[in-house]
Amino acid sequence: MTAPTRNCGLTLAADETTRLAETFRLLGDTTRLSILLCCLAGPRAVGEISDLLGQSQSLVSHHLRLLRAARLVRGERRARQVFYSLSDRHVSDMLHDMAHHIAEERAETAALTAEGEVK
Prior knowledge:
The protein has helices at about 15-25, 30-40, 45-55, 55-70, 90-119; strands at about 45, 75-80, 80-85. The chain is mainly α and about 120 residues long. The chain has a single domain (about 15-119), classed as Winged helix-like DNA-binding domain superfamily/Winged helix DNA-binding domain (Arc Repressor Mutant, subunit A, Orthogonal Bundle). The protein has a 3-stranded antiparallel sheet. GO terms for molecular function: DNA binding; DNA-binding transcription factor activity.
């Protein structure tokens, strides 16, 4: 059992730290991350996500089940289909923030490369 995280900028109970680590582990899979990115634009049916990612519907459904269990997506039944969307703004904000973080890193690398070429 892990001790609570204290005085680290954010106080979490041990079980919360474990759940957070599990959430990041889930996001470490490129298919699951791609599913979340697909849902940034709004609710999408499993078939649409499957087509966009070029993955089977059964694989996408499996990943959606894991994401739903982690409360990262939610499903809404409309007639015979279930449409999935991000569970809340926290998930959306985190994805946007991390995408911006990667873009900043890419821009810094490009600037350093260009600077090295000039010298």
